[in-house]
Amino acid sequence: MKQKTYLLKIENCKFKIMLSIIIPTLNEEKFLPFLLDSIRKQDFNKKYEIIIADAESQDKTREIAKNYGGKVVEGGLPARGRNRGVKVAKGDLFLFLDADVILPENFLKNALSEFEERNLDIATFILNPQSKKRTRKFLFNVFYNWPILIFERILSHASQAILVKKDVFQKLGGFDESIKFAEDHSFVRKAKKIGSFGILRSTKIFSSLRRLKKDGWILTYLKYIAAEVYTLLIGDIKKDLFKYKFGHF
């Protein structure tokens, strides 16, 4: 799919903000260091903070977070963790990340520049699967990246990374903690009704394939297709139909 190219004037980005990066975790000692290290290596001259909303990890997740200068708060399932992270956040802009993603070089500068240039209120990203196999990359594009780009204007999707302005988050009352599955999609669809939504093209998120490897590619895709149909026909998934388990990887 051909994507529009954005000529970004990164050095002239007018955002005078503090960015709060909020990461829900549960036993993420294996993956969290890669994410935090990628944040530390960003060439980014704006103020930012890292908040780890941890759901009672039994490994070294909290220790790792503190070693990287992160602020640790009590979390829960992803929606609750994000909301609790916001309660202590000092930023004007929130970046919610899953613990198993990695940020590429200049991610923060590119993302905020395009976010400003397009005058967005909420945004998400194209995911770049961490795999050297072309087949897996192709399948990932077919089943996720291309569909969310095609439906960007009419049916919003977001997974693993969401960038949103503080005032929009507050107007929505945060993430709906009663939703059992696909709460991130629900959040951006509701946000789109009160603000401008977009998928950023200037940078991508490196995404772990551990979910697909653990649950199986076919079963995972069928589950997400079923969830999509359910939300379109019935609404938010507030019953534990898909037996979602946080941190079972």
Give the helix/strand layout.
Blueprint: E1 18-25, H1 32-40, E2 47-54, H2 61-67, E3 71-74, H3 78-88, E4 93-97, E5 101-102, H4 107-117, E6 122-129, H5 134-150, E7 161-165, H6 166-172, H7 183-192, E8 197-207, H8 210-215, H9 217-233
Parallel strand pairs: 1-2, 1-4, 2-3, 6-8
Antiparallel strand pairs: 4-7, 5-8, 6-7
Count of helical stretches: 9
CATH architecture: Alpha-Beta Complex
User: Which strands sit side by side, in order, in the main sheet?
Assistant: 3-2-1-4-7-6-8-5
Task: Name the poorly predicted regions.
Answer: 1-12
Number of strands: 8
CATH topology: Spore Coat Polysaccharide Biosynthesis Protein SpsA, Chain A
Fraction of residues in helix: 25-40%
- What is the H-and-E element order? EHEHEHEEHEHEHHEHH
**What structural class do the secondary elements suggest?**
alpha/beta
CA radius of gyration is: 17 Å
Query: How would a crystallographer describe the biggest sheet?
Result: 8 strands, mixed
Average pLDDT score: 91
Distance between the termini: 32 Å
The CATH class assignment is Alpha Beta
Tell me the fraction of residues in β-strands, as a range: 15-25%
Indicate the multimeric state: single chain
Number of domains: 1
CATH superfamily: Spore Coat Polysaccharide Biosynthesis Protein SpsA, Chain A
Identify the overall geometry.
Answer: globular
Q: Would you mind describing this structure in some detail?
A:
The structure is a single chain. By secondary structure, the protein is an alpha/beta fold. The protein has a single domain, classed as Spore Coat Polysaccharide Biosynthesis Protein SpsA, Chain A (Alpha-Beta Complex), CATH 3.90.550. 38% of the residues lie in helices and 20% in strands. The protein has an eight-stranded mixed β-sheet with strand order 3-2-1-4-7-6-8-5, sandwiched between helices. α1 links the parallel β1 and β2. It is globular and about 40 Å long.
